[in-house]
Amino acid sequence: MAVKREGVAFMEPSKQDERLVMKINDYRSFSNIFLLIAAFMSIGWFIPEQAKQMGTIFGLSLWFGLIGASVFCLLLSLKWTREWENS
Predict the structure, then answer these.
(1) Is residue 1 situated within a structural domain?
(2) Name one Pfam family in it (predicted).
(3) Distance between CA atoms of 13 and 85, rounded to whole angstroms?
(4) 3 neighbors 12 (Cβ within 8 angstroms)
(5) Domain range for residue 20?
(6) Quick one: pLDDT at residue 6?
(7) In whole angstroms, what is the distance from residue 69 CA to residue 32 CA?
(8) Cβ distance 74 to 24 under 8 Å?
(9) Is 31 helix (H, G, I), strand (E, B) or coil?
(10) Where are the alpha helices (DSSP H) in 6-56?
(11) Does the pTM of the predicted model rise above 0.85?
(12) 48, 5 in Cβ contact below 8 A?
């Protein structure tokens, strides 16, 4: 449904568009959280006691997993942003 405000007609966002924008923002937030946790874990490599734990397979796999999850969330939000812009 077109709405006219200040002489310019524009379309009101549909419920589907609102949900898509909410999903995009949520995944960007998830990505930022994963990056923040990975950044705090990176500080562990500079603390001598923590460096021993971060150098283990578990510490490295957790760190790479967080980075991977962050990239995955960013790629999904980018995909949905392009879908939203093209529709």
Answers:
(1) no
(2) YrhC
(3) 12
(4) yes
(5) 14-86
(6) 57
(7) 10
(8) no
(9) helix
(10) 15-43, 48-54
(11) no
(12) no
